[in-house]
Amino acid sequence: MSKETNRFLAPAGQKIKLKDYSTHYNGDLGKKVGKATLASIKEKLSNHQETLYAENSHSVLIIFQAMDAAGKDSAISHVMSGLNPQGCQVFSFKTPNSNEYAHDFLWRHYLALPQRGRIGIHNRSHYENVLVCKVHPEYILNERIPGYEDVKKVDKNFWKARYESIRNFEKQLTENGTIILKFFLYVSQDEQKVRFLDRINDPAKNWKFSSADIAERALWKDYMVAYEDAITETSTKNAPWYIIPADKKWFARLTISQILEETFKGMKLKYPVLPTEEMEKLEGYKKNLMGEE
């Protein structure tokens, strides 16, 4: 990673304090320059995607987590707009349904993993189970886990085991060729307020607003602690977390695209080379086609 993008990395094995990260950093770039740079990176991402598909040995899983109104949806639409939809799989995870609750918490996320050669994008993810559920431990009771019939039993040991399950899940994926990138869009409480008011004041955006958003906003400090714990426990060398300043949407989109492009470049993807026998056949086909009248 470059020095600029590395500043957003949550180092593996270190205690993360969000106060050490900025929500409004923009690298002294202007919005116009940032948008132009993003446009050029999109072309590179498109080329990388084609090589990823052709090589067919890796998959890429991109995870987005954030507080409400941090810009996850718009980041996905802008950064991924240059990619071929046939090579992408986008999942937005909501509250589990009865069938999903009938399985372990990782089950539905296994089902949504990208195939080799494809890019998977998870808008919210298995991390909801150590974020929302940690702020609202009563939700754990819906999973009907033996020994956890009382919310008082959802203690430190429970969360320690759940973090370990997530690390093992991601370790298995990376060992089998999945590149994992995790982005926390770090928006300030003040900026969230501005965006909520915008949703309320603009009739075209009213549908984006929910009274539940206000209830969760009141638990801001609890969520920040939950994010710090989750990132600390699960940012690893092979499945890193990036804490992205999200007060300026254009800069968040640019930073995410830069990290993706650098990651693809580091994978050193190559188009498959045909065996000599197949190359000779191609030459024969070429001569036949060139000889047609």
TrEMBL record:
Q: Which GO molecular function, any one, fits this protein according to its record?
A: polyphosphate kinase activity
Arranged from A to Z, the UniProt key words for this protein are:
Kinase, Transferase
- Which Pfam families does this chain map to? PPK2
Q: Where are the transmembrane segments?
A: none
**Which BP terms does GO give this entry?**
polyphosphate metabolic process
Ranges of residues in domain Polyphosphate kinase-2-related:
30-268
Please give the PANTHER family that the UniProt record associates with this protein: POLYPHOSPHATE:AMP PHOSPHOTRANSFERASE, POLYPHOSPHATE:AMP PHOSPHOTRANSFERASE-RELATED
Q: Which family does it belong to?
A: Belongs to the polyphosphate kinase 2 (PPK2) family. Class I subfamily.
NCBIfam families of this UniProt entry?
Answer: PPK2_rel_1
Listed name of the protein:
Polyphosphate:AMP phosphotransferase
